Amino acid sequence: MRLSFFFLALLVFQSIHSYAQEEKRVFKIIHKGNNIGNLYAKKEQLGDKVIYSNRTEIDTRIITKIEVDYNYKVVYKNEALAHAYVLIFFNGKEKTNTYTDQNKEGYNFYEDDELQQKISEKIKYSTVNLMFEEPVNINRVYAEEHGNFHQIKKIGPHCYEKINNKGKSSTYTYKDGFLTQAEIDAGLINFKIIAN
C-alpha cells in the first residue's frame, strides 16, 4: 500500500513538473565598456498562465555610488496581461512600487497602493516580453513600471526602437527570435545589455 502510494505521488510530481515549462535568460549589463551588473529573466509556462520574472542588479559609480535593483513579476493568462508588479530600489531605498491588475473593464494601475489610472484596452505585449519574444508586428508595448504604452518600431532587420512617453529611446536586437542585445535608456542610467 505504501509503495503504491509512493509511486502515485512520484507520477503526480513528474506530471506537474513536465506540465511547467521554464526558460531562463541572463544578460550582462555594460556601461561605458564596464560590466556593472546582470539581468536575470525567467519565463515559466504553467497551464494557461505565463509567468515572467525579471531582476536587474546594477552596482556602479558615476560621480557617486549607484545601486539599482529592478524586480518585475508579470503574469499573462490566455495571452493577455493578468497582473504585473514592479518594485525598484535605488541605493537601498524604494523608488518605484507599482501594480497593474486586470478587471472586467480593462486594468487598474496603482502606484504606492493608490489608483493612478484605468486602462481600457487589452494588454497583449509588455516590456518583459522584449526579453523573450521578438516584437514582430507590434507597435505598442505596455510599460509595467509606468502604467502607459510606449511606441515600438522596426528600424532594421530584427532591430527595434522603443520610445517612451518622455521621448527616451531604447533599441533591441534579436537573432532567431531571441534578444541578443539592447541599448537601454532607463532614465537613472543608460546601459547596454548583452546576452550571455
Q: Number of helical segments?
A: 1
What's the total number of strands?
A: 14
Shape: globular
Order of helices and strands: HEEEEEEEEEEEEEE
Content of β-strand: over 45%
Poorly predicted spans = 1-18
What distance lies between the first and last C-alpha atoms, to the nearest angstrom?
49 Å
Report strand order across the widest sheet: 8-7-6-5-4-3-2-1-14-13-12-11-10-9
Summing up helix and strand content along with how strands pair, one would put the structural category as mainly beta
Rounded to the nearest angstrom, the radius of gyration is 19 Å
Oligomer: single chain
Residues in helices, as a percent range = under 10%
* Mean pLDDT over the residues: 87
Largest sheet: 14 strands, antiparallel
Please specify the SSE layout and strand pairing.
Layout: H1 2-19, E1 20-31, E2 34-46, E3 49-62, E4 64-77, E5 80-90, E6 93-103, E7 106-111, E8 114-119, E9 140-143, E10 148-156, E11 159-163, E12 169-175, E13 178-185, E14 190-195
Antiparallel strand pairs: 1-2, 1-14, 2-3, 3-4, 4-5, 5-6, 6-7, 7-8, 9-10, 10-11, 11-12, 12-13, 13-14
